[in-house]
Every structure is written in structure tokens, then in C-alpha cells.
Amino acid sequence: MNMSIDKKKYSSTLPTNWPTRDEISRKNSNPLPPSSGKVDVYYYSRGVRNDASLVPPIRQTASIFKQPVTIYKTQDRKLFWEKRLEGLRACDPDGYEFNGMDLPKTLKPVGPYITEETLLQSVATALHMSSQPVTGQTGSKTSLEKNPGVFLNPDQPLVQAVTIADEDIKKQEDRVAIARKKLQEALRS
Question: For the Methyl-CpG binding protein 2/3 C-terminal domain, which residue ranges apply (predicted)?
Fold first, then answer.
């Protein structure tokens, strides 16, 4: 039985990422009538690509147990990045600089040559960007001043740890109540 196979590839109207279809008609020494419908149909799907981003790398060690490598896509924040912004001030649309803000006396900067302006930028960034509680630097002031690169926590602002007492909360509630009363009076008139 002498058999040869002719392979025809048909272009599909399906999207390019769908499986393609190949039809192979059999050629025998005894040809079948064309109406017999003896056609082998094969479906070919797109092969799985070996994408480097999908396959985690394996450690190149002599161990028989292959250990995967942990990939970190985030970068640590640099210490004292706020110092780059020193001397810069925000401006209004007309180009006039805003006045500097005064921080409460309980907020004390931590680290070498940290000014109040840098402290303000550090606290504002921590409040705006951080998803964890803002507590300040918890290490002792002497250790933070002695070796800030080791003892500073880059996820916290450059301020000593702040403790908020019940008196502070009461004072703030009183200020809010006074501001609300002033706002109500302004809206009525």
C-alpha cells in the first residue's frame, strides 16, 4: 500500500492567536472518490512561549535541589532623599512663593543637619504616601545622631517618635469646634 500525504494550509478568518487548522488529504494507490470526505483534520494551537518574565530564574548552585530566586520589583527609598528638596519653595500661579509653615514645637528633627523645612517635607510625604502608621523614628536620639545610616528607618519621617496625649486630642477637638462655628456664622451671613 503506497501512501503519500499532501499537506494544505488554509488561511483562517479567525484571529491570529486562535488555533489554526490543517487538512491533510490521503493519497492512496486506490484513490477514493472526492465525495467520500476522507480528510484528516489537525488543529494546531499556538505553542506556549517560554517567556523569560514568566519563568522564575533558578539559583546556579551545586545543590541537587534547585532553589528559585525571589524577584523584587520595588526599590528601597534612599535615606535623606528629602534633603534634595532643601531650598525649594512652592509658588502660586502668579509666581509668588508661599510662606513657610511653622510646625508644632513637639516635632523635633532627627538626623544630621535636618532643618525644619526638611522635616516638614518628610512628614508631609509620609502622611501622603505611606500606607502604614506614621510614628517617627523610634531609635534613641544619640544612636540616630551617631550612625544615622544604620539606625534610621527610611519608611518613617525624620522626626523623633511622637506621643499624642489625651490633652492634645482635646485641644484639637476644641479648635475644630471653633472653626466649625466660624464657618457656620460665615455661611449664615
Answer: 95-187
Please give the model's pTM, rounded to 2 decimal places: 0.50
pLDDT in tens, 102-116: 888 888 888 888 888
Contact 1, 29 (CB under 8 A): yes
- The DSSP annotation for the chain comes to ---EEEEEEPPPSS-TTSPEEEEEEEE-SSPPPGGG--EEEEEEPPPPP--TTTSPPB---S-SS--BPP---S-PPPTTGGGGGTT---B-TTSPBPPPPPPPTT--B-STT--HHHHHHHHHHHHHH-SS----B-S-HHHHHH-HHHH--TTS-SBB-----HHHHHHHHHHHHHHHHHHHHHHH-
Binning pLDDT at 50, 70 and 90, where does residue 150 land? Answer: confident
Residue showing cell 535615606: 79
Nearest Cα residue to 165 out of 117, 114, 104:
104
Q: List the end-to-end C-alpha distance of the chain, in Å, as a whole number.
A: 106
Whole-number pLDDT of residue 124: 87
Phi-psi region of 163 (alpha: psi -120 to 50; beta: other; left: phi over 0): beta
